[in-house]
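Justification of computing resources. Each target in the renewal requires a structure prediction run like the one illustrated here; the chain below, 238 residues long, is used simply to show the kind of job we budget for.
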Amino acid sequence: MKYTRYDLKRGKDNKTFFTVIFLVLILAFVFGTIIFKLFIKSPISSNANTTDVTQISNSKDKSEPSNSMSNSQSTNFIAVQGGIYKSKENADAEKALLSQYGTPFAVTDGDKVRMFLGIYAEEQGERIIKSLTEQKVDNSKMLFSVNNKDLCDAEILEIINANVQILNKLAEKNVKAIQTEELKKWCSALKKVDKNSKNISVLNDIKEHVNKLPKELTKENVEENYIYIYGILKKLSS
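Resulting structure tokens:
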């Protein structure tokens, strides 16, 4: 009588072989994904302390203002203030204190000096104030409410917001510089607005300011740019 012989040992070996191959493929996929995220998807330049502006902006369509600003009637920014001083020595002491938390800047107001930690989008500004208060650091806030009535206003707000985010990022200890090429390209690609818009002169001024920024912003550039943005916000909210 004929019978079929089964080699059980070979079957077991084949099962082990395919299991090993399957595990190797899974591990290869996992490590490949990790390497992709670390070295390919991240747009950070070869200098670990230099950040590209594209890492900061979240706008989906860089030729148009984002919905978060274009749909609201006004947008608020907060300048976190440390104090107001007549004495240069006191102002310098306050600046040294605030330097532990960011990159402060000073604005001359008559015969006094206002010392600020920074300018922030409203939500982040409130978080900064809360953190300073919890650490018993005296502070107050200056609120700038900017109208958003047309495309011109929306573009101004987007450019201000982009600049504020960059300056906030530069205040972080591990960030030494930020490339501005993408910011300039994005700014120049914004839609043309009505030449009769109320704030067209402000829009043209801030676009020119962005275009004149150095290729790389460092912490040394923070104070002068904060002062510029402060002046623009004061003009728009007055």
